[in-house]
Batch of 3 targets.
Target 1
Amino acid sequence: MSPRVEADPKAWIYANWLWRPTSVVTGRAALSLQMEPRIDVPTIDALLPYRYADRGLLRFHHASLPGELITDIGMGLAASPEAAALFLGSHGDWAPICDALRTGAVTADEIRRARELLPRRSDARLMDLTVRYTSGAPYSVPELEFHELLRILGITGWKANCPVRLNVTEGGRPVVRERYPDAAFEAEKLAVEINSEKYHNSSDAFARDTLRARWFATEGWRQFPVTPAQLRNNPNDLLADLCSRLHRDHRPAGLPRVEYRPEAPFWRVVG
C-alpha cells in the first residue's frame, strides 16, 4: 500500500475487499460506513470464514454472520449497524455504540433482534450483556453506566430516553414540546440528566439547558443533573440524593455502597 494512504482507514477497508471479497467489515469500520457523523476508526475489524493473520490496520476474526445482518454497500460487504454494535459490545467498545444510538443509525430493538439471529456463539454472554446495556438506548457511555447502576441496585420506576410532553409557551402561543431525559421517574416527575462537558460546555448549550429547565419546571418536573465525574467518583452520594427523592416502592430497602470500574460490568457492590 502506498505510504500516502497507509494511515487511512478507508484505504485499508477497500484494500481488504479487493484482497478478500468475501470478508465482512464489522465494528467501528462498519458503523463509520453507515452513519453520520463519522466515528474514529483506529483499526478495521473484518470477519472471514477461515483464520488469517492480521495485516496493517486490518484485524481478522474467524466468524460469520447470517445474510440478514450483512449489508452490501457497493464496494463490499459490511455488518449491519446492529451486528456491528454487538461485535463492539463483545469487545467492550461502548462509545461508538452510544454514538450510533444517539444519531439513529441503530436502535436498541434492532440490537436485540440481531442477537436473536445469533443463537449459538462463543461470545453469547457478552452479546447478552450488550443487549442489556443498550436496552435504554443510552446516548453516551456515562448514561449507559448510570442505567446499569439503577438496574444493579433495583431502583425502579424509571424510563430511559422516553418522550416527556411539555406544554410551554413560545412566541406568546401555547405549544407542546417533547424532551427525552436520560432517566425519567414519571411518578415523581424527576428527570435525571447526565451532563458532560462535550455537549454542555458552550453558550448555545447553556441557553438550551436553561430553556429546557424552564420547560420542565412549568410542568412541575424537577431536574436532577449529574456529571460523569460525579457519577464515577461519588456514586454513593449521588444515589443517596436520588433515592431521597423517590417513592418508597421505587428505591431499595437498603442502599449498598458501590465502586465504579471502567470496564463492564462497571459497578461493584462493596457493602
Target 2
Amino acid sequence: MITTYFQRLDPRKATLCLFAGLLATWAFAGSLGLITGALSLGPAAESRLPWHSPILAGVLLALVVGLPMTVVALTATHNDPAAAQTTLAAAYLLIGWVLAQLLILREFSWLQPVCVVSAVTVAALGAPPLGHHTTLRR
C-alpha cells in the first residue's frame, strides 16, 4: 500500500519525504536519549548546557529539529503550496541547531557537518525546480 502511495509522488518529493523523516527520527531518538540519560554528552559539555540540563537539550532538540523535519516529511507528500518555505525553514533550524551546539558546547563532532550537509540536501530537495514560479496565497 505504501509503495502505491509513493509511486504517485514524483521521485524528488518521495526522496524529500524519506530523508526528512529519517532526520526527524534521528532527532527524536537523540532527544529521547538525552531526556532518559541513555545518551551522555560528558560532564564538560553538560556543564555548559543552560541550567546544566540534558533534559532541556533533549526537549529543544525535539522541538527545533524533530518537529520541523516531521512537518517537512508530511508536507512533501501533499501538494502544499507552503512546502518549499517549510522545508527551507526546517533546514535553517537544523543549521542553527548545529551552530548553537558549536557556540554553547564548544565541542566538535563528526555529526555536525553531516547534519549541515543533510540540511542543505533537504533545502535542495524541497526547493521548486529552476524556472518554476510559485505564487503564495495570502
Target 3
Amino acid sequence: MTPHSLAFYVDVVMSGAVLGARPTDSPDQVTAILGTDFAEDRPYGDTLARDYGLAEFFWVRESPDHPWEGHHFTLQVHRLAYGGGAIVNRGIRDRYGRFDRHLRFDKLRRLLANRGVGLEDVPDANAPAYTLHWQPASQVSVITFRERQWGRPPRRGNRLVGDVNSISSSMTAGQVAWNRARYGPRDA
C-alpha cells in the first residue's frame, strides 16, 4: 500500500472526518466535499444513505418536514479486496493516490501509535470473527477481520485475517461503555 493511502486512513482515524466531511454534516455539505458521484438510498422516509464508493454517509430526520441530521459515516474498507482502488471516490484518490486491496490493522495501529494516537480494544458481539477498536478523541471505530469463515483458504481479492473491515464515526464513550458492560471482559 502506498504511503499516501495509508495517510488517508490515519487522517480519518485522527480527525473523525473524510476530507473534512464530518458525520454531522448535512447531505449538501458532504456532496460539496466528496462530489456528486454517489448512489442514494432512502429505505424509509426518515433515513438517507449516500454511497461514495469507499465512503458511505448516513442521515436521519424526524419527518419529511425536518432537515436531515448527520448520523455517521463508514469507510467500507473490505470493498477494496474485491473492487480494488477503482471504488475509491475520485476526490480521495486525487488527494491520496493509489489504494491497495488490503489495509492491515497492525500497520494502521503502528502508524497511529507513532503519532501518539492510541486505539482501545472494545468487546463486541461479532467477536471472535471481528475485533472492535476505538479512538476516543475522534470517536472513530475500526473493525478488523480476525477469523476466516467457512474454512476457505484466501484467494485473490478475498479479505485476509488481520485486514481492516471498516472504519466508522461516530462511536461515543457511552456506546463503548455499553459494549463493555454487555460483552466484556472478552478479549477484543
